[in-house]
């Protein structure tokens, strides 16, 4: 079950009231920075925008005045975008049918959330040149919106699953070959597409020009994000589908499409990791039991499958932004996949009398997370009866009920 991530105004310290060291200014409380989550400062503007979009008006700041393009960024060289004027921000507003990008005066914006990472030096925005501190723990809560329009608010992102488990830039360990640690440079995903007659096929590392997504997977799609997610409507030509690996119903479909090159519509049922391109960096120390000498092993192949690999996911819960797609699994499945789901002690302060500025205590936060851990999966299951995925699910169930496929998914004799 998939959902879209919206911002949750966090527990204290209220991050919208803090600023990072790279932005220290005496007027930091009124400043807007790149990657801030914002809404309109005027409630009338907010209400007007919310009435036609998601029912809430939120956006992500993509650029602010003074943002300089990276000299090494070749993509920027072909970009004709004008610089952002002083005291303005370029905001990518989240909408039901995509996004709306506009340049807005800072005075018309209200910051809802500001992203921080471990190690950031911060200060109070109201006194940016005063006492400073270092971020030692990060907890991210999110509001989720499902396909049926329902919302679940304040869910810990530790409870959510990334659509792409292995992502470029992240680190993995190959324990079976001397404990090599490597950095993922590229991911080739397998995308499973299902049709309303129950047939199903898989594309290995699909090209978005051939398996065309109906919408973006994030506000700012990049190499880390997979272009596909469960529930996404995709379009493909007959020639593209002929190159896919059919796991169910391919014989009848391909026979009916002989000589045709029309466009077909399906829904993504699953995104699973296929192969990874890994830059192997270092190997843990391995010593010969007899001689005590260090034993060196050659690194694994650069292109490897994911079987046996460990993804280093301790900080994965911080890698979310407005508009991202997520998967919501059962609590048991989530715990089996990530040992840190219940690791509250690592990010909740301890000690008697600790209370957040908003009035919540660590115990309150833990109780809220525990309550939502049990209910968010039910909300995700309920949403599966809506949208394009629901139509495909009903068609698949009808095909099996009619005996079109056997239990293994193969085409029957009918």
Task: Write structural notes for this entry.
With 414 residues, the chain is of the alpha+beta class. It is built from 7 helices and 22 strands. The strands form 4 sheets. Strands 13, 14, 15, 16, 17, 18, 19, 20 and 21 form a 9-stranded antiparallel β-sheet that branches. A 5-stranded antiparallel β-sheet has the order 11-10-1-22-12. The chain has a 5-stranded antiparallel β-sheet with strand order 6-5-4-3-7. A hairpin with a 2-residue loop joins strand 5 and strand 6 (98-105). The radius of gyration is 24 Å and the shape is globular. It starts with a strand and ends in a 13-residue tail after the last helix. 29% of the residues are buried. Residues 7-14, 21-27 and 71-78 have low confidence and may be disordered.
A few lines on this structure:
By secondary structure, this protein is of the alpha+beta class. The protein contains seven helices and 22 strands.
Shape: globular
Give the CA-CA distance, first to last residue. Answer: 32 Å
- Compute the CA-based radius of gyration: 24 Å
Portion of residues within helices: 10-25%
Structural class by SSE content: alpha+beta
Number of helices: 7
Task: Compute the average pLDDT.
Answer: 78
Secondary-structure element string: EEEHEHEEEEEEEEEEEEEHEHEEEEHHH
Biggest sheet record: 9 strands, antiparallel
Give a count of the beta strands, DSSP E runs of length 2 or more: 22
Kindly estimate the percentage of residues that lie in beta strands according to DSSP: 25-35%
Low-confidence stretches: 7-14, 21-27, 71-78
């Amino acid at each position: 079950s998939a959902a879209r991530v919206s911002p949750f105004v966090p527990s204290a310290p209220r991050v919208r009231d803090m600023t990072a060291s790279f932005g220290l200014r005496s007027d930091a409380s009124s400043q807007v920075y790149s990657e801030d989550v914002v809404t309109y400062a005027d409630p009338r503007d907010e209400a007007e925008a919310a009435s036609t979009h998601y029912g809430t008006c939120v956006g992500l700041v993509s650029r602010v005045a003074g943002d300089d393009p990276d000299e090494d960024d070749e993509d920027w060289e072909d970009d004709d975008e004008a610089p952002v004027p002083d005291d303005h921000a370029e905001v990518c507003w989240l909408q039901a049918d995509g996004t709306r990008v506009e340049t807005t005066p800072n005075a018309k914006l209200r910051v809802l959330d500001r992203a921080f990472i471990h190690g950031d030096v911060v200060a109070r925005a109201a006194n940016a040149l005063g006492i400073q501190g270092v971020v030692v723990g990060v907890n991210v809560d999110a509001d989720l919106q499902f396909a049926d329009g329902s919302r679940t608010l304040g869910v810990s992102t530790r409870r959510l699953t990334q659509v792409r488990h292995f992502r470029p830039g992240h680190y993995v360990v190959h324990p079976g070959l001397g404990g090599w640690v490597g950095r993922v440079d590229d991911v080739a995903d397998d995308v499973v597409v299902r049709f309303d007659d129950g047939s199903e096929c898989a594309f290995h590392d699909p090209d978005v020009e051939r398996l065309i997504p109906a919408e973006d997977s994030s506000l700012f799609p990049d190499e880390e994000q997979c272009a596909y997610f469960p529930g996404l409507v995709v379009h493909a030509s007959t020639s593209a589908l002929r190159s896919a690996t059919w796991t169910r119903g391919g014989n009848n479909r391909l026979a009916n499409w002989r000589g045709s090159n029309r466009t077909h519509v399906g829904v993504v049922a699953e995104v699973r990791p296929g192969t990874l391109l890994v830059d192997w960096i270092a190997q843990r120390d391995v010593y010969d039991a007899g001689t005590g000498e260090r034993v060196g092993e050659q690194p694994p192949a650069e292109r490897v499958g994911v079987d046996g690999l460990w993804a280093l996911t301790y900080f994965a819960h911080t890698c979310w932004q407005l508009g991202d797609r997520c998967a919501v699994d059962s609590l048991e499945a989530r715990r089996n996949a990530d040992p840190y789901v219940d690791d509250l002690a690592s990010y909740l302060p301890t000690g008697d009398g600790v209370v957040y500025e908003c009035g919540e205590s660590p115990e309150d936060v833990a109780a809220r997370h525990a309550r939502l851990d049990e209910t968010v999966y039910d909300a995700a299951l309920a949403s599966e009866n809506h949208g394009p995925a629901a139509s495909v699910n009903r068609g698949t169930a009808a095909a099996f009920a009619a005996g079109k496929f056997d239990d293994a998914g193969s085409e029957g004799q009918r």
